[in-house]
Amino acid sequence: MDIDTAADFKARLQNMIVYQDILIKNNFLAQSSCDQEFSTLLIFHNDLRRKYADLRAQTDQLDQYIEHYRAESERKDKKIQSQSSQILRLTQHNKRNNERLTELQRWFDRIKDSITEPSTYNKLYEILRNSHMFEGETTANLSDRYCTGDELDVDYSHMPKVVSQSAGIGEIKRLTDTNDIDLKLHKSPVNISAASDRNVNKNKPEPNQLRTSPIPVSSRKINLIHTQSTVFFCLVEELELNIDDQFWSKLIDDHHEQKSLSPINSALPKLISPTIEQKTLTPSTPASNLNSNSSPSNITKLHSRGHNFISRNILIPETCCCLKRIHFGKSAYRCQGCNALCHTGCKENCTTLCLPNVKTPNRGAVDIIKVAMAPKDPEWTPKFVSLSENCPEGRTYFDWNDKGIEEWKANAIKFQDTHVKDNNRTEWFTYKSEDRDALELRILMAICGFRTPQEGSKAAPSCPLRTFKRDERLHARKLKKVIIKHSNSSENIHLNIIYISTATKVEEDKQFYASEEPVFVINDHRKLIDKDGRTYANFQDYKENNKLPKAATLAPKNGTYTPAQTIDGRVPLELGETPATSLLKRAKDVVDTVVMVGGMVLAVTGVVTFFAPALFSATAMSVIQAGSFFLTTYGVVGAATSIHDKTQHDESIRTEVFVLISSALSTYSGILRTQAIKYAREGKTYAEVMEKIGKAQRAMFAVANVFTIVSSSGALISSIFDLMAKRERTWLDYYQFCMGLFMLVNVCTKPITIKGIFDSEQMQHLNEMKNSLESDDAKEEMSRMLAEHSTSDQKAYMIRNLNKIENPTEFFELIRKTRSTVTCTADGLTVNNMIDISPLSYNDIGKAVFIEKFNQISKSESAALHSSFMDEFDQYIPDENKENFESRLENIKTLPVEQQRETMRNLVNELTAGGGPPQEAFDASWNRAQTAYRDNLDQQVNEMIGHLQQGSTGPGQEDDFTQLGDLARRQMHGVATPEEQKELQQQLDKCTNHRKEYFFKSSAIHRDDANNPENNAALRVDIKTFTNAKNERLCYRINVEDVKQTLRNTFQVLNHEDIIVHDKRIFDNMKTGDYDRLNRVLTEYTTRGPNLLSAAIHLGNDPAFVGQVNTPHDIASITEALEKQRASLPRGQRQEFLNGIATGTGEHYDRFRNDFNGRINAINALPDDIKSQWSSTLSMAYHWWKHEDQFRTNQPLTIDEYFREYSNNIFKTENIIGTSHTQAGGIKQSYTRSFGARIHVGFTFGENRTKASHFPK
């Protein structure tokens, strides 16, 4: 065992030694490899250091070259300036030479007769002609390789200055009339090739070979013009100046620098229009007809007018003369003469000429030059166009007999004639896919005109696109995409251009402004695209829906320069007016302007309202809300109409879609907002609002508002983008901007959640209430009350109650004057913690009682007259005729006053034996009856005033009530004048104010009293004038506590609400009216009240009782019925009756229950339509029982007479003497009707006029 262990250990030791050897070898190899790699890296590092040193040396050398080149460039610039001055001097010299030559020509003509040999004369004339230098020849316009020879010797002095409305500041487009060009015979046409090999081909084209399009193709070649000692770049910037201005160019380099360039034979390019047989030209057609011997173009004299720069802050980004952008808010210099714009650092280096501009009258910030109507040339006639009409058909906006229109029309015909000649019957110009730059350049030149490179810019004749501004090129690319999109094929684009001659007129300006509007015609369907990218199905669609301003137009008929049928080979023209001149469009422009201004105003008011909600009155806020609704509605209609129009003409509808989305979401949130505002102004709590709106709509409201903010922001950003991107801004663009701004401000200045809207509207409504108060004391008191009502629910209660106060100013002034405290609750007002009263019932204090009592006295006038007649003349009437006398007396009372006396005399004589009393006795009785009648009315008025005057003992208050009584009596007797009637109303308002003051004062003086019998007794005395049934019949909290205490003591319970009647807790949650009904029963019946109340409870719990006790009013009805039964018994049996019924047993109890059951059964037998008119069956049974003996003597009323005949007789609208409110706010109507010598009264409650009772008085 030990031997095996030793062997195993030895073997393992040998293995470990082998492994160690292997590790040592590997470590050695790894170290060798690292050393080798380090050596290689070191060598590579040294190589890099050497290369860096070489590159550093080369960089220093390049810096020296650059510095040398910069110095050389400065020297060349100075040389160019010197040569430019030399050109000016040469121009002046040539002018003087021409004057001398002209004088020599005149003398030569005089002596030509003395020259006998014709050859001698011809030689002299040739020498003179060759020596003559036309004005401007030395300083002729330098045209690039895209100019035509036809354009070199054009005299523009007779042409009106016409500028494209699409041109920006300093961008002028020339419309030449080539019919007046006098071509020199020695000039031959040339073309510059745009072929792929980029070489000049001097061979003539084949007869059927397609020729190059009159559009320059991008090329990197430089075309030079050879002169004796100078070379000029052929740069084009066709600028139309005033009549005395000519074209200009710059001298670039001298003859020595020209030799260093590649040897290219210079040539003056001329674009040859295709012949009549040619129908399609392409930019890729090989060039031909190159004539290297053509003479240079004429150079006109250079005007050196200086700029008049003023400092301005830039609001809209524009481009400097250095071709860099001037951003928003930066300071820059703008020329007052030509509106040229430059950086503050570019002012001294601005190389552009100062060319005066005239702002366009109706196309935004576009500059055009006013048409200088040149005198008509009577010898000129159009060669290629014809016009058969003098004015458009139908009703026109312009006066086509106006001299300005006539002059414009003559010049527009010249322009159209030139366009037709340039087009040369070419139906289409074809652009292939590789000619996209040529298409873009064609678009730029059609819209913006030609350009020459600015000094120091990257533009060159080989890169003509760079001569245009960046925003112009971007616009052209967008337009190119539209053209390619609507072409039949993107590989071969068929394009032609027609021009619409327009004349516009600015208000209060007698002159017209002319312009030439390019319209692109594409594909075989002849779709039209204007310079803004708006497409039209045909030329008729263009005429009816173009977006040009109000202008007169002259255009080729059917929108083509190559019509199928012509008159004498000429293109027919037609006159017209743009759609903007129509009455409907002008009316829409006016409305759009109003809406735009309204949108800005409402946006500002929205911001102001957000920070100062109480600044505007309720009427102003209503107007603002109505205006917002109108703007939103008009915006939706306008957006929908614009979408329909733009989709048909392939325009972006981005802004309109945003407006529609914003309007839809705003409308949805506006509906919920309107509901929340309505409920907030009605005084509803937020919980009540949520019950009506719902949680789902509450969540959707917040989401809709967020999306409305997003969409309206998108509409605003989109409209701003359109304003910035468009080269010509219209009212529609500003209108869309104003609508987007209005919608964004409208939603951002309003709370996003319904809770926020609810709280905001609460405060706004309360502030409006406070501002409407007429005195500072009232405003201060309301502010104090508002501070005490801090929560949302408390504010809702405050709004709910104050909305119902008739005179808030008086209300707050009385609170402040009496130092009262008023708390607004859900059910009404809590005054001094003494009484809970509805604001409607508060309004009725004093005035409603007076009106009701006064009308009742007026209604009782007939009864008082009846009573006085019976008292005086009853002595003359025999007993057997008294009934007849009383019945006929009813007719006398209805007669006029002047007839009553004679009719009464005849009646008394008729019914009295012996012819009646003597005249003296009758007159005395009549006078006594009238006196008694008037005294009776006066007594009732005095009693009414006395009840209202109770407690109102302030300075002058008694006199006010006395004067009110005097005026009321005069009104009662019908002798009050109109002035006295008006004074009566004013006096009633004063006395009402006195009574309301005492209402606050009577409870305020006891507000802090301790709860003890003595103080309670004083309080009862002070408030008695308000609690008695002859006045307001109010129920104070002390009366409520009396009822509660009586119930607890009578039934031995801790809580009166625990009393059970027929398994019902009828005293649970009693209202003020329930307490008032029980309080009057208990107060009237004093000590026997508890026994009667206990008996009523026993009866309600008695299974043998057929009545249903549901409310405290039913208990009160049973109690009063018990008192009626008790009062009908002899005095000796009344106490026994009380003792018996109090226990719910005994003979008296059973007899009463059976009698009452009989009456209830009789009531139940009545039709439902009668029972539904009353409050309850028990109330009907009680009131019938109580009043059946009061209508006539010894004959009680039957159930039908009480509930049908007499009830229908009293409860009529004409018998209403007053409408007031209960203490809880319910409606109460009072009725009165004369009933013999008595009056019949009745009462109903609620909107449905539920009958409570009626009885005679």
Automatic annotation (TrEMBL):
<dbReference type="InterPro" id="IPR031962">
    <property type="entry name" value="DUF4781"/>
</dbReference>
<protein>
    <recommendedName>
        <fullName>Phorbol-ester/DAG-type domain-containing protein</fullName>
    </recommendedName>
</protein>
<dbReference type="Pfam" id="PF16013">
    <property type="entry name" value="DUF4781"/>
</dbReference>
<keyword id="KW-1133">Transmembrane helix</keyword>
<dbReference type="GO" id="GO:0046872">
    <property type="term" value="F:metal ion binding"/>
</dbReference>
<feature type="domain" description="Phorbol-ester/DAG-type">
    <location>
        <begin position="306"/>
        <end position="354"/>
    </location>
</feature>
<feature type="transmembrane region" description="Helical">
    <location>
        <begin position="699"/>
        <end position="721"/>
    </location>
</feature>
<keyword id="KW-0862">Zinc</keyword>
<dbReference type="InterPro" id="IPR002219">
    <property type="entry name" value="PKC_DAG/PE"/>
</dbReference>
<keyword id="KW-0812">Transmembrane</keyword>
<feature type="region of interest" description="Disordered">
    <location>
        <begin position="192"/>
        <end position="214"/>
    </location>
</feature>
<feature type="transmembrane region" description="Helical">
    <location>
        <begin position="594"/>
        <end position="616"/>
    </location>
</feature>
<dbReference type="InterPro" id="IPR046349">
    <property type="entry name" value="C1-like_sf"/>
</dbReference>
<keyword id="KW-0479">Metal-binding</keyword>
<keyword id="KW-0472">Membrane</keyword>
